[in-house]
Amino acid sequence: MQVSIIIVNYNTKDITENCIASIISQTKDVEYEIILVDNASADGSKEYFENRKEICYIYSNENLGFGRANNWGAEKAKGELLFLLNSDTILIENSIKKMCDFFYENENKLKIGVLGCKLIDAKHEVAHSGGYFPTPFSEYLLMFSSYFKFKNAEFIIDENKEYQMIEKVTGADMLLRKTLFDSVSGFSPLFFMYFEETDMQKRISKLKYKNYIYNNSSIIHLEGASFNKVIANSKRVIVQRSKNLYFRRNFSSYILYVIVDMFFNLLRLFNSNYTRHENMIFIKENIKSYFSNKRAANSKY
Fold first, then answer.
1. pLDDT (tens digit, 9 = 90+) per residue, 49-107?
2. CA nearest 168: which of 209, 127, 229?
3. Which DSSP state fits 29?
4. Residue 69 domain-assigned?
5. Residues 65, 193: contact at Cβ < 8 Å?
6. Averaged over 140-145, what is the pLDDT?
7. What is the Cα–Cα distance from 37 to 74, expressed in whole angstroms?
8. Residue 167 to residues 116, 143, 151, 199, 277: CA-CA distances in angstroms?
9. Burial of 6: CB neighbours in 10 Å, binned 0-12, 13-18, 19+
10. Residue 47 belongs to what H/E stretch?
11. Which of the residues 75, 166, 248, 258 has an alpha carbon 20 to 30 A from that of 109?
12. Which CATH number belongs to the domain containing residue 102 in this structure?
């Protein structure tokens, strides 16, 4: 088996079905399997997918989150490559075959760890495909940019290049060797959602692997068009909690980060994208999460 395509579903039956249909119709000349891990969906997904012969369906009685669900799928995978794919993606133009061919041809020369492709939105415009490893300093600049309208430094896809080296590939599409995934124990179970793919790729980079975007292959990412839009406050809380966990695991200066971030909590009171009550909830949860997971700093994975 060449590649195991792993998709996590959580109450997105129709979107997931469209993703699977695009895989089947658009993937040629490559041996693959589709593994669908269902995070206790209550939208009829179980009844709809469990008897489908073209997929390996795994149902969890609890919502495992993104990372743990993918880890479970990887345990069942038979492919030498893993392709971790978001359910809100649509494959086009035999994209998996193109990515696998590039991976095999350049794996040793480029020391490929994780390979992503050029993501596009529903209008076929280039969407967020990856970026740089966040640091406390870069996060402070990002926060300042939101308050003072500075221009963010973002990774730019150069369509004139066949591929580009990048620090981290977005979690929507990640192709890598199963042996490499296993060697870093996959995603850390400490993360429920967000930053788990960044944390894993950080560990992969420490093994001297490089991550890349392959621009000659494209996948439609339906969420890509909304990447820079204001998110719901509940999602903002989860993202911040995972961000704090990521910094605690990966930076020795975490205490300094917390001290500076406490100052930014004052600025967050005046974030006009949210109500004062929402800002207070966010700040309270943010402070709670600074040291909520004592295992994080000492955990290897």
1. 999 999 999 999 999 999 999 999 999 999 999 999 999 999 999 999 999 999 999 99
2. 209
3. S
4. yes
5. yes
6. 68
7. 10
8. 11, 21, 20, 11, 36
9. buried
10. helix 45-49
11. 75
12. 3.90.550.10
Number of domains in the chain: 2
Q: Do 14 and 127 reside in the same domain of the chain?
A: yes
Query: Are 206 and 247 members of one domain?
Result: no
Q: Which residues pair with 126 in a beta bridge?
A: 120
Helices 254-268 & 136-148, crossing angle to 10 degrees? 10
Taking only the tens place, the pLDDT of each residue in 214-251 is 999 999 999 844 444 678 999 999 999 999 999 999 99
Residue ending a domain, choose from 184, 204, 226? 226
For the question of whether the overall pTM of this predicted structure is more than 0.90, the answer is: yes
The enclosing H or E element of 5 equals: strand 3-9
Q: For residue 233, what are its two tokens?
A: 């406050």
Whether residues 205 and 249 fall in one domain: no
Please determine, for residue 297, whether its predicted confidence score (pLDDT) is greater than 90: no
Query: Are 19 and 93 within one domain?
Result: yes
Q: How distant is the alpha carbon of residue 126 from its chain centre?
A: 17
